[in-house]
Every structure is written in structure tokens, then in C-alpha cells.
Write a structure and sequence with these properties.
This is DUF3939 domain-containing protein. This protein is an alpha+beta fold. It is built from 8 helices and 10 strands.
Length: 318
């Protein structure tokens, strides 16, 4: 018995597939590019949710998806009992109807036989009317059985081979948000609140479109509307920018990726020694092929985990 659960967070899908067998539970979890699978043996008489609980916690499954899985497992506990109950109810119904069918057919044949035999005895043409009576009784009984079978074993019964398609729930039409004027600070607060509500392992970059603009359809419920102008975000540093600075986040991401790779390979930052402003040394990055082109903007390395910024830091005084 298989069941799949799914949740969508922006452009990231979170899926869990469960397969319940008699002696084991197969679990497959996928979130973005992360995939985990486990085969859990049921060797104790414990609730099903206890077997998968550690797997859900270990992989930081979102609370919404975890709740759905646990509720399903709690319902599945009595599933076999429900199926057996349905089968026994059907069996009793079927046996009762089969007895009715048999009695109906037998009575019809008996009446036809007796009627034909009576006429043969009166007219003395045996076995003509006896055979006609048997045929008539058989036909009448067969028709009666057929009529009852159609009535009680119509499509939708337990024996139906093809399951009915599940009715698709009618979803409410997507809400149309009004345009609003917001400041950069209001957008920053909305992004932070959105990020706080995300499950572990899902990042605020799901808000960023390919051109680094922010997808405000995911923030509309926080802002109570869609901003009338565009805002932009760096996918690497999460810095926010207005329309006039839309060229900065693209170059910022390019430089940040180059700096991160350089640090990973060389265990030091690409900047000139004793440079008080900690400017990113583009010459070094270009020479070692970490950058393909020279950025138009000068970026600086901050003390915050090596993140870059386009704002020149104030030089420390001696």
C-alpha cells in the first residue's frame, strides 16, 4: 500500500513516499536535490508513526508534511480491520443473495414443472406441457435472478474491478492582490518573516527569479499586496536592492561565487595585503580563472563570513 505526500515552497518541492508492507515500511524523501530512502523493519508491536518518526526528524521534514504523514499512519493502523469488515459485510450480503437466487430459480422451475405436468395429465399429451413448463419456469427464474443481480451488484460494489476516479477537489480561484507602495525596509522585513517560516534546508533564494528580481506572489500574504515596483535580491548574500540598482545583485553573485571558490582552493581571501578597505582583487581572480570578466563594480570583503559588499567600508584609524 503506497501513499505520496507533497508540499511546495516556492520553486522547491518536498515529497515523501510511503510503502506499507506486512513486515516493513519503505520511506523515500525528496526535497530539491536532496533524496533519502530507508527500509524500516517492523519487528515490534509499536504504532507505525514511531518507526518513521526518527527518519522524519533526521531529515528535517517540514512540520506540515510531518503532520500529514503521522495522521495517515494513525489512520492506516485500522485499515486492515476496515477492509476485513467490508469484505465480511459483502460476503454475508452475497451469500444471502445467492440463497435467494437459488430459491427463486428452484421455485420457478418447480412451478413450471408442476403446471406442465398438470396440463399433461388433463390433456394426456405427456411430456409436451411438462417440458414447456420446465422451460418457462427456467426462463422466469433466470430473468428474476438476473433482475436481482443487476439491482444489488451494480457498478460501485465490492467486486467492481475498476475503481472510480477520485473527485478532484475544486480549488478556490487564486486571489488577486492589489498593487501597493512599499519601502525597501518593508520588503526586507517581509523577506525575513518569510524566511523564518520556511522549513529547515529551504532558503529564501526560492523568492528570487532568474533576473534576481523578487517573486512577490510568495510575499503578498505578508505585505497584503504586490509592490508596484520591482525589488531585487542577491542569491548569495541576500542583500536587497531597488530598481535603480538592479545591476548590482547579478555582479555581486558572480564575485561572491568566485571569492568562495578561491578561498576553498587557497585558504585565503583574494585581496591585496594591508589593504584597509579589503577590496576584492579582481586581477588575482581573473588570472586564476575564477572570474571570466572584470566586474564593473568594486566589491569589498566583509568580516561577516567573507561575504562581499558594494559599500566601501570605513577605514580604521590608527
Amino acid at each position: 500500500m503506497k501513499r505520496k505526500f507533497s508540499k511546495t515552497y516556492g520553486r522547491v518541492n518536498e515529497d515523501i513516499e510511503l510503502a506499507l508492507e506486512e513486515h516493513m515500511i519503505f520511506v523515500h524523501y525528496k526535497r530539491g536535490n536532496i533524496e533519502k530512502s530507508a527500509c524500516l523493519l517492523k519487528n515490534e508491536n509499536r504504532p507505525l508513526k514511531e518507526y518513521v518518526d526518527s527518519f522524519l526528524k533526521e531529515n528535517n521534514v517540514s512540520e506540515e508534511l510531518k503532520t500529514e504523514v503521522i495522521e495517515y499512519l494513525q489512520d492506516a493502523k485500522n485499515l486492515s480491520g476496515k477492509q476485513w469488515s467490508e469484505f465480511t459485510d459483502f460476503l454475508m450480503k452475497a451469500l444471502s443473495l445467492h440463497m435467494v437466487f437459488a430459491v427463486t430459480l428452484a421455485v420457478s422451475i418447480f412451478i413450471g414443472y408442476k403446471s406442465g405436468a398438470y396440463l399433461d395429465g388433463r390433456i394426456d399429451v405427456y411430456p409436451l406441457f411438462t417440458l414447456i413448463g420446465l422451460a418457462g419456469g427456467l426462463a422466469l427464474g433466470g430473468y428474476s435472478v438476473y433482475a436481482m443481480a443487476i439491482k444489488y451488484f451494480k457498478p460501485g460494489s465490492f467486486l467492481e474491478k475498476k475503481e472510480k476516479k477520485k473527485q478532484v477537489a475544486v480549488t478556490e480561484p487564486e486571489r488577486k492582490w492589489q498593487e501597493i507602495d512599499v519601502s525597501l525596509d518593508e520588503v526586507r522585513k517581509a523577506v525575513r518573516k518569510f524566511s523564518d517560516d520556511l522549513p529547515k534546508g529551504v532558503y529564501r533564494t526560492i523568492l528570487v527569479n532568474d533576473d534576481n528580481s523578487i517573486d512577490f506572489t510568495q510575499l503578498a500574504h505578508i505585505l497584503n499586496g504586490i509592490p508596484s515596483r520591482k525589488f531585487y535580491m542577491s542569491k548569495e548574500t541576500y542583500d536587497l536592492f531597488e530598481e535603480a540598482e538592479n545591476h548590482i545583485p547579478v555582479q555581486m553573485d558572480m564575485v561572491q561565487n568566485a571569492v568562495d571558490q578561491y578561498v576553498k582552493d587557497n585558504q585565503k581571501y583574494p585581496m591585496l595585503p594591508f589593504d584597509p578597505s579589503k577590496r576584492v582583487n579582481y586581477y588575482q581572480l581573473l588570472q586564476d580563472h575564477y572570474l571570466k570578466e572584470h566586474p564593473d563594480i568594486q566589491f569589498y570583503i566583509t568580516d561577516c563570513d567573507g561575504l562581499v559588499t558594494h559599500i566601501r567600508p570605513s577605514e580604521k584609524r590608527a
